[in-house]
Backbone:
């Protein structure tokens, strides 16, 4: 599944009104679970950037982690990400 | 059989379950809380204890654990009882209008009312994404250690990079035939001291450390024989007769789904006057409850607890007049709270 970022990316704000299927975001966007795991499209990895240490720690709990894995709650929405494509893993956690 | 009897059983000892003790206590109802975790606080204590919460009224910022500590202090005058480390399994109605709840290890509780404050459900160990792992669970694959002796003489694979993984690697290393620790990356979340001890054992060739992910298991009749680990340099198969994966916890509604309550997408619909479920005498508050406009906020759960308590009181003490009082001015509430006159 792919989605347009501005419509749904969970920010660290509750409630998550529009979490799409495939993103559970159990902890509500606090980088405290690993259920909003996404694969960033290869054309976008440089723009999106690398996870910080805390996010890497949480990624240990995610399913089928790849080099382009991120927790979507830790991707700050900004203009440069307009049109971003991410894919959701087969399952969360 | 010992039966614990109380006025109200609260399933879940998160912030909302804890505050329910306060509201029920003001109305003279005694509470017993049951939680699958080993301490109070629910998600606040388990998922994000050190993170600040900014939307608790009166607290511009308070850490999740700080909030739990304050709630425990606030409800202490009502002497709530707790059962930790047990998942509730069954619930049945008793002929006299009360309820009986059975928890793991056949612990039995009876009460006049039940409050489900179970948040996102019960925390259970996550099953790692390894094809066919179910077949070995309970025989060769375990998510916790009940008896260390069960691991003596085995080729043990510990998977994970946190404290549980490191602690059990170190504790079982002297008993096991050989311990292999597998982690996705060279950095560990566990306490540095444990990581240093593990690395010293590896340097002395007393255990193996492999960076990678377990991608396959082999064995027969539920007995594990080997595991395939995929690392930066490709795949390797190692002997493995016991496995301990530590992939964190996930939340599942669990047996509550079997209690015959109406459900709405794994949430429990309630009315907004009493916060009662489709079964009279069973209430639901906090994140697990659902009604039009519901917000999953701690502060909403506090409000729900206050209204639920009024309804629970009417149920437990039918006919008794409930006098609405303020804690600021009521000397009778002061006595309950242990406030000196």
Residues:
């Amino acid at each position: 599944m792919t989605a347009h970022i501005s419509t749904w990316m969970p920010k660290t704000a509750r409630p998550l009104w529009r979490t799409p299927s495939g993103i559970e975001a159990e902890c509500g966007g606090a980088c405290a679970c690993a259920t909003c795991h996404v694969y960033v499209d290869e054309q976008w990895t440089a723009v999106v950037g690398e996870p910080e240490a805390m996010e890497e720690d949480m990624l240990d709990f995610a399913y089928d982690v790849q080099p382009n894995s991120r927790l979507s709650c830790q991707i700050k929405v900004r203009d440069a990400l307009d049109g971003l494509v991410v894919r959701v893993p087969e399952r969360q956690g | 059989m010992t039966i614990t009897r109380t006025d109200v059983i609260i399933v879940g000892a998160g912030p909302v379950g804890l505050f329910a003790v306060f509201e029920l206590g003001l109305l003279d109802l005694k509470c017993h809380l049951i939680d699958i975790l080993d301490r109070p606080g629910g998600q606040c204590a388990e998922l994000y204890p050190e993170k600040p919460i900014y939307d608790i009224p009166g607290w511009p910022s308070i850490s999740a654990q700080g909030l739990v500590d304050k709630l425990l202090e606030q409800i202490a005058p009502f002497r709530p009882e707790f059962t930790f480390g047990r998942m509730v399994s069954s619930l049945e109605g008793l002929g006299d209008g009360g309820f009986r709840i059975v928890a793991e290890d056949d612990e039995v509780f009876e009460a006049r009312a039940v409050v489900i404050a179970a948040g996102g459900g019960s925390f259970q160990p996550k099953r790692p994404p390894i094809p066919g792992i179910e077949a070995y669970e309970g025989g060769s694959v375990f998510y916790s250690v009940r008896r260390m002796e069960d691991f003596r003489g085995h080729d043990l694979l510990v998977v994970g990079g946190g404290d549980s993984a490191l602690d059990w690697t170190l504790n079982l290393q002297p008993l096991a035939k050989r311990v292999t620790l597998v982690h996705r990356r060279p950095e560990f979340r566990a306490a540095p001291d444990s990581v240093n001890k593990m690395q010293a054992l590896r340097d002395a060739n007393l255990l193996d450390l492999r960076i990678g992910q377990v991608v396959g298991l082999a064995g027969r009749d539920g007995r594990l024989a080997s595991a395939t680990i995929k690392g930066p340099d490709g795949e390797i198969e190692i002997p493995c007769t016991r496995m301990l994966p530590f992939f964190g916890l996930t939340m599942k509604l669990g047996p509550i789904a079997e209690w015959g309550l109406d459900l709405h997408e794994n949430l429990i619909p309630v009315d907004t006057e009493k916060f009662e479920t489709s079964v009279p005498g069973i209430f639901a508050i906090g994140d697990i409850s659902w009604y039009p406009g519901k917000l999953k906020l701690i502060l909403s759960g506090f409000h729900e607890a206050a209204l639920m308590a009024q309804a629970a009181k009417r149920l437990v003490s039918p006919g008794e007049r409930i006098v609405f009082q303020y804690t600021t001015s009521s000397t009778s509430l002061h006595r309950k709270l242990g406030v000196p006159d």
Remarks:
- Chain A has one domain: 5-87.
- Chain A is about 15% helix and 10% strand.
- The longest helix of chain A spans residues 53-59.
